[in-house]
Amino acid sequence: MCGIVGYIGPEQASPFLIEGLSKLEYRGYDSAGIAVFDGNEVHNKKSVGRLGILKKKLEQSPLEGHIGIGHTRWATHGRPSDVNSHPHTDCTGNFVVVHNGIIENYMHLKERLISKGHVFTSETDSEVVAHLVEEYYEGDFEAAVKKVLSEITGSYALVFMTKHEPEKLICTKQDNPLVIGLGQGENFIASDIPAIIQRTRKTYILSDGEMAVVTKDSVWVTNRQGVPVNKKVFEVNWDAEAAEKGGYEHFMSKEIYEQPKAIRETMSSRLATNNSKIIFDELKWNREEVAAIRKVVIVACGTAYHAGIVGKYYIESMARIPVEVDVASEFRYRQPLVDEHTLAIFVSQSGETLDTLAAMKEAKRLGAKTLAVTNVVGSSISREADNTILTWAGPEIAVASTKAYTTQLVSMAMLSIYIAGLKGTLSEERTHELIAGLRNLPGQVHEMLEDVEEIKTFAQQYGFNEDVFFIGRSLDYAVALEGSLKLKEISYIHAEAYAAGELKHGTLALIIEGVPVIALATQHDVYEKTLSNIKEVKARDAVVIGVAMQGDDEIKKYVDHTIFIPKVDKFLAPILAVIPLQLLAYYAAVTRGCDVDKPRNLAKSVTVE
Q1: What is the homologous superfamily of the domain 3-242 according to CATH?
Q2: Where in the chain is the domain with CATH 3.40.50.10490?
Q3: Residue 548 has what pLDDT?
Q4: Do 253 and 395 contact (CB within 8 A), yes or no?
Q5: Alpha-carbon span 509 to 496, nearest angstrom
Q6: Does residue 2 have an active-site annotation?
């Protein structure tokens, strides 16, 4: 989950490399570096820490040249340090590489290369790639790279540069994203589109197994066997400012406030004008296909996993199909009971989460019908799946997911109504009610974001507590899980979510005087039981903040504070109820002085196991 950039053209390479890395720092920020060829030698400058440290080094000692590569790192092999930073070079310094991913067989290769006299300077798996190029180079850069690719196993996006053939960069990918920006007399390489959209909107999105030779005037794409690949130009059609903060203090704040737009665009063209059905032109499933589905499995990680839990409630309740929800990193290792009658749904904001991608490949091997729910066009998971639902949330820069999560919930709701329509398990009246409720969501979210002062006050008042608990039942429990994750990942407060009915089974031992408890009470069918659970924690002198629907005067009798969400169908309540939890987490992190957009030890897209 590192950021990669490359440049070749008439301009100085360093300014673009730094500019591009600044747009990719959300992918990893424990170190950064660039390498530039000045016409005679390759010069490498790198530093542990944030990109700003590298910038200062370059201000003091600039690197000049018209071809270069850069990298911002999130450590997997080797601690964050100057020497472990990328780019990595061979023994001679003539071959340079940047890498995102993991070389699984690096230790075997490293031992072999050491026995041949190669001297390694870092603890990383990536350095072995540079030494392999040195080992295999016999006057043909492309041939050497191909031989390297035949040796390494694992996941990677790689960009190669050498002083011996300074008119080209070579790049390739396997299970990690890589795009090529097409300019006029110059070309760009990056892990992600935000790094290049200030320079060009025309791109090639590389697929697994493809290799590109990039010069200033051309891009030549082949497969590993050298067979040319006819790539289609992907035109980036979203505003370049979508990757900038736009006046907000943090990307997370900006993305919270973008949720009305993101939800509206996710539903755009998918709701029938008369609210009679959901339209998924990208699926085109028929009644027979849906009737053949006997089980659904939803597989995801982190926030997307919580969206999957909500999806389970939706599909089982509306479409009446049994659903399992699995953590992607566990799915492959439990011999899952998946076959041709299984619909396997894989949820990932980036579409590049390696555990989720590997789980999808296993489900396909077992014969399942696969569906991706992702936010990124052309991502690995979307390409691997039989079908894809795009969430259309736009780029999400903050590590803590907000608008991607709510659009995943909206997508799950629409998918459930869609499947139920094909199965005939929802009445016309109920279908109409749910779709009408979906239409109202953007306005309701906007209404909630109009006045956040009370939530800000709560966050300031309780932001220095070291423990916070979230409780809820039914769909509220799923939302509690996400609220807990948001708080812990950006404010570093120890936060736990519990099914409220489980309090007597051990959790009450943790409730002491003054500990904040966030109690969700939006599900009317378990409302009385939730009130009973709130009374239990109040009896232990907890401070309770209730989250309930407008007009609920009863809950005020039992809680210390109340946050109200607009009245909404119980199935759609999770989409609204998570908004105040996102805000609580955000303002708690601000109160504590945390780095909101780049929480410690985390990165946006987890492209390693």
Answers
A1: Aminohydrolase, N-terminal nucleophile (Ntn) domain (3.60.20.10)
A2: 251-448, 453-591
A3: 96
A4: no
A5: 13
A6: yes
Residues of the chain with CATH 3.60.20.10: 3-242
CATH topology for the 251-448 domain = Rossmann fold (3.40.50)
The H-assigned helical ranges of 292-427 are 302-319, 328-331, 354-365, 380-384, 403-423
Q: To which residue do tokens 């299970």 refer?
A: 175
The CATH homologous superfamily of the domain defined by 453-591: Glucose-6-phosphate isomerase like protein; domain 1 (3.40.50.10490)
Task: For 169-206, write each residue's pLDDT tens digit.
Answer: 999 999 888 999 999 999 999 998 889 998 999 999 99
Residue 58: Cβ within 10 Å count:
17
List the chain residues with pLDDT less than 50. none
The pLDDT score that the predictor gives to residue 246 is 57
| Contact by Cβ (8 Å): 411, 302 | no
Two tokens, residue 92: 């001679």
Q: Pick the catalytic residue: 110, 168, 598, 604?
A: 604
- Using CA atoms in the order 346, 350, 354, 357, what is the torsion angle rounded to 10 degrees? 30
- Asked if residues 482 and 578 have their Cβ atoms less than 8 Å apart, the reply is yes
Distance CA 461, CA 468 (A): 13
Widest CA span in the chain: 80
pLDDT value of residue 367: 96
CA separation, residue 445 to residues 132, 306, 316, 406, 452 (Å): 54, 20, 26, 10, 12
Helices assigned H by DSSP within 11-50:
13-24
Give the C-alpha separation, 459 to 589, whole Å: 9
The pLDDT value recorded for residue 510 is 74
Distance between CA atoms of residues 276 and 269, nearest Å: 13
Q: What is the spatial distance between Cα 111 and Cα 321, in angstroms, rounded to a whole number?
A: 52
With H, G, I as helix, E, B as strand and everything else as coil, classify residue 349.
coil
The answer to whether 417 and 569 have CB atoms below 8 angstroms apart is: no
Sign of CA dihedral 306, 310, 311, 313: positive
Is residue 171 part of the annotated active site? The answer reads no
In this structure, the strands spanning 88-89 and 67-73 are unpaired
- Out of 2, 171, 301, 594, the active site residue is 2
Contact 393, 404 (CB under 8 A): yes
Q: How far apart are CA 298 and CA 219, in angstroms?
A: 39
Q: What is the pLDDT of residue 607?
A: 57
Q: What is the DSSP letter of 27?
A: G
For residue 49, give both structure tokens.
């820490």
CA distance 418 to 283: 10
The predicted pLDDT at position 599 comes to: 86
| Per-residue pLDDT at 30 | 83
- Find all residues with CB under 8 Å of 285, minimum gap 6, and list them: 418, 419, 422
By the 8 A CB rule, do 176 and 352 touch? yes
Please give the Cα distance from 538 to 531 (Å, whole number).
10
> Cis before residue 336, ω within 30 degrees of 0?
no
Q: How far apart are CA 558 and CA 66, in angstroms?
A: 67
Task: Enter the tokens of residue 259.
Answer: 């949720």
What's the pTM value of the predicted model, to 2 decimals? Answer: 0.76
